[in-house]
Every structure is written in C-alpha cells, then in structure tokens.
Amino acid sequence: MSVASQTPAWSADALEDWLLERIARLTSVAPAAVDPEAPFVSLNLDSVAVMDIVVALEDLLGFEIESTIAWDYPTVRLLSGHIAGLAARQAAATPGQPPC
C-alpha cells in the first residue's frame, strides 16, 4: 500500500516535513538543520537532486508535477504550500478516489 493511500490528505505542513526529511537524507544533515525558507541551491541541491525530489513527490502523491516547479517555488516552504494546493485540487477533481 502506498503512502498516498494511507494518508487522508497532504497539508502544506505534512509536505514540508516530508521535503525536509528527504533533503536531510540527500545532504546528510538532520532535518532540523534544513532551513525551509532557504533556496534549494543554498541547500547544496543540484538540478538532478531537485528533479529526483519532484519525481518522488509524483510517486508519493500519485499525479504529475511540472518539472520546473522547484524553480517557480524555490524553497521548501513555497513548494510545500503550492503542492498542497495541487493535491487538494487533484483530490477534488477525482471524486470517489482517496485524497492524495
């Protein structure tokens, strides 16, 4: 069973926590050391790492995300807020499906 099917909804806070954990693993630091308002580039994430995160988000949430999204929303806080809105709209657009 996927994480998405176990989770009733993805709030901005839940997505922020997920992103902080993911970035912490990629950069070998504690999640608390990742500044959610710092640009991804300042977190030592190259474009490949950021794309890997976007692909993991797609897998987690079950829908496609634009490949340029991290450049349009270049911090954990901005990205998580935007993705939470996308997830809510996706859930509303697919009645009868469990929310993402």
From TrEMBL:
Keyword field contains Transmembrane: no
Family matches, as Pfam families: PP-binding (PF00550)
Keyword terms of this UniProt record: Phosphopantetheine, Phosphoprotein
Keyword NADP: no
SMART domains in the record: PKS_PP, PKS_PP_betabranch
InterPro entries: ACP-like_sf, PKS_PP-bd, PP-bd_ACP, Ppantetheine_attach_site
Protein name: Acyl carrier protein
